[in-house]
Amino acid sequence: MDTFRIEELRIGTVRPFGPAGVPSGIDKQPVSGPVPAGPEGLAGDAQGDRKHHGGPDKAIHAYPVASLPLWAHDLPGQAALFRPGAFGENLSVSGVAEADICLGDRWRLGSVLLEVSQGRQPCWKLNLRFGLPDMARKVQETGRSGWYFRVLEEGPLAAGMEARLEARPNPQWTLTRVSDLLYRDTLNLAALSEFATLAGLPETWRSMAQARLARHETESWARRLTTPE
Fold it and tell me: Would you give the DSSP letter of residue 102?
């Protein structure tokens, strides 16, 4: 796949979320007109936890609309929730899914150049979002997580724009393969060694791969996936 389309563009402000009222920008609303995109993301968009969300490596979150009917099939009790914006994404996109996207891909949309930086690592806020205590783990296990873009060249983005693949430096590293390495084949030392050397890999992911190589063990995911008491 060498094109995709923005079906919806969404931004959100920080609001209290969940029973404890934690600050979150996950409830993003659609915007009809063009929105400036820069290194920190879309103008007007905000994140409640800047330690784990936002920043240049997580400037814009995209989610494929093709995954929504799959979720509705898997979880019929929550089927009505699976619509664009369900996963707190900035861009609801059609024409591609994780198997079609590679780390480091560069996508051109008008004057904007986006680079795929990493897949989303789901956190416990998705458990509250969908009313399921293990939703974050389900997202991780299926690999239907969406992905993040860096903004390399600034400009306006809007719903209806089409993206064209401009460069693919790592064609062997689809997001599906990355997900398999991170969460299933976690101690594949040969793959980890290759993964750790990829140009443009976020330093958090590089450090994670290097730690697995050094210790021959997988880090705990409990804090990220389990809803706090």
Answer: B
More confident residue, 22 or 101: 101
What would you measure as the largest C-alpha separation in the chain, in angstroms? 49
SS3 call for 213:
helix
Tell me how far apart the alpha carbons of residues 72 and 81 are, in angstroms, rounded to a whole number: 8
Half-sphere exposure of residue 107: CA atoms within 13 angstroms, side-chain side: 29
Strand residue runs (E) in the chain: 3-11, 15-17, 22-24, 29-30, 35-38, 41-42, 60-64, 91-94, 106-109, 112-119, 147-153, 155-157, 162-167
pTM: 0.95
Measure the CA–CA gap between 225 and 33, rounded to whole angstroms: 35
Cβ pair 32, 23 in contact under 8 A: no
| E strand segments, 34-181 | 35-38, 41-42, 60-64, 91-94, 106-109, 112-119, 147-153, 155-157, 162-167
Using CA atoms, how far residue 10 sits from 37, 50, 73, 91, 179, in Å, is: 12, 18, 25, 6, 25
With a cut of 90, say whether residue 48 has pLDDT above it: no
Residue 214 to residue 193: CA distance in whole angstroms: 11
CA 67 to centroid of chain Cα atoms:
13
Dihedral sign for Cα atoms in the order 207, 208, 214, 215: positive
Which pLDDT score is estimated for 55?
87
The span from the CA of 52 to the CA of 63, in Å, is 18
Spatial distance between the Cα atoms of 125 and 142, rounded to a whole number of angstroms: 17
